[in-house]
Amino acid sequence: MPAKKILITGGAGFIGSCFVRQTLTKHPDYQVINLDALTYAGNLETLRDIENNPSYRFIKGDIGDKDLVDKLFAGGLDYVVNFAAESHVDRSISGPEIFTRTNILGAQNLLEAARKYWPRSQTARYLQVSTDEVYGSLGPSGCFTEETPLQPNSPYSASKAGADLLTRAYFHTFGLPVLTTRCSNNYGPYQFPEKLIPLMINNALAVQELPVYGDGRNIRDWLHVSDHCGALDIVLHQGAPGETYNIGGHNEKENIYIVRLILSELKKSETLIKYVKDRPGHDRRYAIDSGKMEKVFGWKPRYTFEQGIRETIQWYVSNQDWVNSVKSGDYLKYYKKQYAGR
Ligand code: NAD
Ligand code: TYD
Questions:
Q1: Which residues are catalytic?
Q2: Which of 28, 116, 161, 210 could form a disulfide with 152, with the two C-beta atoms 3.0–4.6 Å apart?
Q3: Which residues partner with 31 through β-bridges?
Q4: Residue ranges of the domains in the chain?
Q5: CA–centroid distance, residue 25 to ligand 2 (Å)
Q6: Ligand 2 mean position to 196 CA, how many Å?
Q7: 254 three-state secondary structure
Q8: Cβ-Cβ contacts under 8 Å for 194 (sequence gap 6 or more)
Q9: Residue nearest to atom 29 of ligand 1 (CA)
């Protein structure tokens, strides 16, 4: 049997790079193609350790580029896992348009190519990597299930919900063998330092203010990135076409708890905490019911939050070269605009 060929889009980003690495390890017979536009969030430094692996090929390009995507499908693909996206809520507030272009139109371009090249395929799979944010915000109790109505509140989550709905429609209308996953907030190595955990670690290390939005009591449900990728591998190979699977680790934490934990681990003073103006439309609470993943596949996360967050903090302490390499001039400009005078 010829080796399976898998297209991973957005593989130079935080989660995609972890999935590229896991796939090369778990499926050494697969040919892995990583298609990534290398936006500010994508960095080949993240993949230095595997760049010479003969089963791996990197292609710099946009998932919205019709000719390029067509050419990749024409070369034969068994699986597509779409991570490529604009992924930061704050950026979607200051500039929403690129979110629609990449997250919705880009995904549709992949779906269209899959429809053209996989007519009646029983074995091909398209996996849309989505987020719990499509469900909107929860009150103090309850969890998102796969049946929770989509009520996205930010341009980011609305664009992800748009892609989810198109993915669903390509299954119902064209019979395309698609899968959708919705995961809670990820943390771990190689996360771009604009997101809560790496931003707070790096500011603490630099003895700079830690900007906490609003009252700091918004809740996110944290999962280690390698647990997310393990779940994606299971869904890709065992999931039923047309199905959606929630992925989460039952680790609900208030933001301020995480900020204090980081300061304490790094032995820095809580006087660095600065409460700043809240994010517009800030979702209060996310929590995922991943009962379907557990029931159908027996999946459970391996990391406890306590172990994962300590390892992650230590990873950032030991990998400041990586942090400095991804903080280009563009990021410094963004940081100033986002936080100055807030
Ligand atoms: P990220 O921002 O770190 O990485 C995104 C990657 O996509 C980057 O490498 C970027 O260069 C690439 N990209 C952007 N636009 C592209 C385009 N037009 N064509 C090709 N590549 C492009 O994001 P992440 O945190 O790794 O998230 C990956 C996916 O997982 C996203 O779809 C996101 O919505 C989803 N997700 C993220 C989380 C989280 O907590 N980070 C949780 C659930 C779901
Ligand atoms: P973030 O990492 O941007 O993920 P998301 O908004 O997609 O969940 O933010 C996580 C939480 O941390 C969110 O409630 C906003 C908050 N936050 C801050 O308080 N300060 C910050 O500087 C950032 C980036 C986030």
A1: 132-133, 156
A2: 161
A3: 5
A4: 5-186+222-247, 191-220+251-286+304-329
A5: 32
A6: 5
A7: strand
A8: 88, 90, 91, 331, 334, 335
A9: 83
- What does the block give as tokens for 36? 């990534």
Instruction: Determine whether domain 191-220+251-286+304-329 maps to CATH 3.90.25.10.
Output: yes
Residues sharing a CB contact under 8 Å with residue 257, sequence separation 6 or more, in sequence order: none
Question: Does the 5-186+222-247 domain belong in CATH 2.60.40.10?
Answer: no
Rounded to two decimals, the pTM is 0.98
Closest listed ligand to the CA of 218: 2
Residue with token string 């297209």 = 7
pLDDT in tens, the chain (342 residues): 668 999 999 999 999 999 999 999 999 999 999 999 999 999 999 999 999 999 999 999 999 999 999 999 999 999 999 999 999 999 999 999 999 999 999 999 999 999 999 998 889 999 999 999 999 999 999 999 999 999 999 999 999 999 999 999 999 999 999 999 999 999 999 999 999 999 999 999 999 999 999 999 999 999 999 999 999 999 999 999 999 999 999 999 999 999 999 999 999 999 999 999 999 999 999 999 999 999 999 999 999 999 999 999 999 999 999 999 888 778 788 888 889 888
User: Would residue 167 be called left, alpha or beta, if left means φ above 0 and alpha means ψ between -120 and 50 degrees?
Assistant: alpha
Q: Strand pairing of 273-276 and 210-213?
A: parallel
Ligand closest to CA 184: 1
Per CATH, 5-186+222-247 and 191-220+251-286+304-329 having the same topology is answered no
